[in-house]
Specification:
204 residues; mainly alpha; three-stranded antiparallel β-sheet; 8% strand; globular
């Protein structure tokens, strides 16, 4: 029987995420990709949730991100700070400049052309596999030796909250976990001493 391969989560630090964003480039696709990385890293959304966002789901003034249909069909909110939200604002400006509207997904294709006899227009949904491939490529370009993938950015967000003194229950809520034990698994990015301390604090 084949053994399921279990990936070790390698937590990216902020400098590595910034290097990842710098590797995106300054063209329209690079601006979009940088904004997507910012959302994944600073909101803790699942990749499926990030790709389902529409323009109206992000309030750039307050920094609030609304997930309407998270796992288990739950609605919840997260928050992105102004420094990272500025990357989203750049993408929104670029979207408007290339003729995209609020009807298309927030993170969508920008290319056009003909494929297999079909005319392709900008604004098509991105697929999760595309984003995973993109992040691997950007990680290599940025010289990051850790495995770079969407769920790793979600883990990095959670670990940053934990190290910032947040209790486990609020982190569970913002991540959309139904069980606290799932949130505890995100402590794998911490040292054993940190993990034990935060588990104890989160259950008080």
């Amino acid at each position: 029987m084949a053994t399921k391969r279990v990936w070790k989560i390698e937590i990216l630090d902020e400098d590595e995420v910034r290097a990842l964003i710098a590797a995106c480039g300054k063209g329209p696709a690079g601006v979009r990709d940088a904004a997507l990385i910012a959302v994944l890293y600073r909101s803790g959304l699942r990749i499926s949730e990030a790709l389902a966002l529409l323009h109206r789901d992000i309030d750039t003034k307050s920094g609030v991100v609304t997930v309407h249909n998270g796992k288990g069909d739950k609605r919840r909110h997260s928050h992105i700070g102004p420094v990272w939200m500025s990357l989203v604002e750049k993408w929104l400006t670029k979207r408007r400049a290339i003729g995209l509207t609020g009807r298309q997904p927030l993170f969508c294709t920008i290319s056009s052309g003909v494929r297999k006899g079909k005319t392709l227009e900008p604004g098509r949904p991105l697929h999760q596999a595309q984003v995973r491939t993109l992040l691997r490529r950007l990680g290599k370009r940025a010289g990051i030796e850790k495995r770079v993938h969407p769920h790793g950015l979600r883990h990095a967000f959670a670990v940053d909250l934990i190290r910032g003194g947040k209790a486990l229950k609020p982190i569970q809520d913002v991540l959309g976990h139904s069980r606290l034990q799932t949130t505890e698994e995100y402590l794998r990015g911490l040292s054993p001493e940190e993990s034990l301390r935060h588990i104890a604090e989160g259950r008080e």
